Amino acid sequence: MQLNKLYINGFKTFAGKFEFDFKEGITAIVGPNGSGKSNLSDAIRWALGEQSIRLLRGSTLADVIFAGTSSRKQSGMAEVTVVIDNGDRAIPLEYDEVSVTRRVFRNGESQFLINGIECRLRDINDMFAGTGLGKETYAVIEQGKVDAIISSQPNDRRGIFDEAS
Amino acid sequence: MQLNKLYINGFKTFAGKFEFDFKEGITAIVGPNGSGKSNLSDAIRWALGEQSIRLLRGSTLADVIFAGTSSRKQSGMAEVTVVIDNGDRAIPLEYDEVSVTRRVFRNGESQFLINGIECRLRDINDMFAGTGLGKETYAVIEQGKVDAIISSQPNDRRGIFDEAS
Amino acid sequence: ARKQFIEMFAQIRENFKELFAQLFEGGQADIVLVDEEEPLESGIEIICRPPGKKLSQLSLLSGGEKALAAIALIFSFLKSRPAPFCILDEIDAALDEANLQRFKELVSDYSKRSQMIIITHRRRTMESAGRVYGVTMEEQGVSKSVCVDTSQLTFQEGMV
Amino acid sequence: ARKQFIEMFAQIRENFKELFAQLFEGGQADIVLVDEEEPLESGIEIICRPPGKKLSQLSLLSGGEKALAAIALIFSFLKSRPAPFCILDEIDAALDEANLQRFKELVSDYSKRSQMIIITHRRRTMESAGRVYGVTMEEQGVSKSVCVDTSQLTFQEGMV
Ligand SMILES: Nc1ncnc2c1ncn2[C@@H]1O[C@H](COP(=O)(O)OP(=O)(O)OP(=O)(O)O)[C@@H](O)[C@H]1O
Ligand SMILES: Nc1ncnc2c1ncn2[C@@H]1O[C@H](COP(=O)(O)OP(=O)(O)OP(=O)(O)O)[C@@H](O)[C@H]1O
Ligand SMILES: [Mg+2]
Ligand SMILES: [Mg+2]
Hints:
The complex is a heterotetramer, with 2 copies of chain A (about 160 residues) and 2 copies of chain C (about 160 residues). In chain A, about 20% of the residues lie in helices and about 30% in strands.
C-alpha cells in the first residue's frame, strides 16, 4: 500500500486542477515560504477524513476552498482525490487502486467518495483503521509539531499508542 | 547602554567559570544541538531577575545549578554577572559600568547584587524599568517562541505593549 | 485488546531505546506506563538522557534534542507498524548539520518500508530524495508545482 | 499614562506597517485596539495580508509567514524603543533563503541602534555577525566556548 496519485482542485492556494505522481522511496517538497507546501499536506489529511478545523488552520470548513486573489475569483468548491496503491490488498477491496475523494461546497455541503461512489465519512475511517493513517496518526507530522509528543503530558500521549495497537 | 561582559559560574551546562566579551553590533552564537547556546540566553535573563521557572525550562529554582555529569560533580551554586555599559547614564547611577549579579544555592537561598552590593530583586526590576528589558521584554525572544505573539489571543498581547510605554 | 496493547507497547519501547541511542550516538531512553495495572487507560512517561548528561526532565532538553527524541519515537512506531506513507513537515528545522546527517540516513533507511513525503528547507535532507516537487507562486497567491527528478539536480545553497 | 500609551501605540503601528511591507516586499499589515475607549485595558488585534493574497486569518498563514510577521512586529518595538541589547534565539529557523537574506539586512540595519546577540544554525545569518562565539561540548555535558573574529572566517556549509 502506498500513495500513487493526488488530484487537487480549488483547495487552499491550489486554484486550478493539479496532479501529483508519487513513487516509492523519498519525495521532497521544497519551495519558498507561503508557497503552498503545508497546504499539500493539509489536502491529503483532509481527503482522508480529517475533521479538526484547527488542524487545517482555518475556522470554518469552507476555509479550505480557494478564497481568490486580487486577480482571480474565488472557487465554488474544493475537491481532493487520493489514489492509493492496493496491490497488497491491505484494504479488503478487490481493486489494485483505491481512490478516496472529498468535496466541499461554499454552502458547507460536503461529499465523500470511494472509487467514485458516494459514501459516508464513517466508511473512509473504517477503511483506514489499523493502517496507521487513522485519526491519531503517527504518520503525518504537521509543521512545528514535531516535539509536541515530547512536550505533552503523560495522559495526552495515549492517542498515538492506541492508533498503533 | 549595552552589554559589555558576562561572567558565568555553575549555571546549567557551564560547569566552570566563564567570561564572555561583547562588543556593539552583531554577535552570533553557534554550535551543535544541546551544547548550551540557549542556556547562555537563560543565564542573561536569569541575572536580570527572571522569576518564571517555566521560562527557564526547569521545575525548581535550583534546576539552574550545574547538575553534574558522569565525570564531574554537581555544583553547589550558580552565579551569573552581567556587566552593562552605562556611559550614556541611561541607568541613573554615577558609574560607567553597572554590574548585576545573581546567585542561587542548592538550599534555595538566592542573592542579588548591584556593583557587588547586596540588594533585592525589586531594586533590579526598578533599575531596568523603562529600558525595554523589563519583565515582558520584547528584546529577548526564546527559542521556538518567535511567532507566539502572532498566534496568541488579543488580550494576551498586552504585555509587550505595556512594556514599551 | 489488553494483550495486544501490551505486546505493541513492548515493541515500541525496544525500538525507541535502540533508535534514541542510534540518533544521539549514545545515551539512554525509555517509555514507561504510569499505571502498569491499567495499560489501556494509563498515561505514558517518556524518559530521555542524552550521552554524558545526567537524567533530567524533558523540559530541560534543548530544541534540537527534543526534535531528535521525537523523531526517534515517531520512527519507533513506523518500525513496528509501518504506515503506507508518511508526511513529515519541516521536522528537521531545529537540527544542526551533524544531526541532519543522521536524520537523512534514518529516512533513507526507512524509506524502504514506508513511502516518505518530506517538506523541508534544508539542503542535506533534499539530497536524500529520489524525486523533488518544487512548489512556487508565479502568480501571487496561487500555487504551482513542478516535478524534478533528482538525478539531474545539483543543489545550490541558495536554491530554495 | 493613557496619552503615553496612545502615542506609543501609534508609533509602533506605523513601524509595523512599514516593516511588514519591507520584509514581505508588499502586502499590508496593521495593529488595532479591540476597544478604542479603553486603550489601557484593550486587547490588540493583528492584521496581516501577504502580497497578492486575500486578507485572511492569522492562523492560515504559513510557518515562515508567521515568523516573518512576528519579526516585523519585534523590530517595530525596537525602532521606537531601542533596548540596550537584544537576544534572538533561532528566530530564523522557519525562513527560506530569500527571507533569510531580508532578515539579515534588517538585523544589520538595526544593529546600529541596539546590540544584537543572535543564536542561529543558518549560515547566512552568521555571515552578518562581527563576532562569533562557538559553544561546544568537548567534555560531554559541559559547555565550552571559543570566540572567533569573523574577519578570519569563511563559513563552510557543514560548519555548524
Ligand atoms: N482557502 C485559501 N485560499 C487562498 N489562500 C489560502 C487559503 N488557505 C490558506 N491560504 C494561504 O496559504 C498560505 C500558506 O501556505 P502554506 O502554509 O502551505 O505555506 P508553506 O509553503 O508551507 O510555507 P512555509 O515554508 O513558510 O511553511 C498563506 O499565505 C495563506 O494565506
Ligand atoms: N542544571 C543543569 N545542569 C546540567 N545540564 C543542564 C542543566 N540544565 C540544562 N542542562 C542541559 O542543557 C542542555 C540544553 O542546552 P541548550 O538548550 O542551551 O542547548 P542549545 O545549544 O540551545 O541547543 P539547540 O541548538 O538544540 O537549541 C540539555 O541537554 C540539558 O540536559
Ligand atoms: Mg509550511
Ligand atoms: Mg537552543
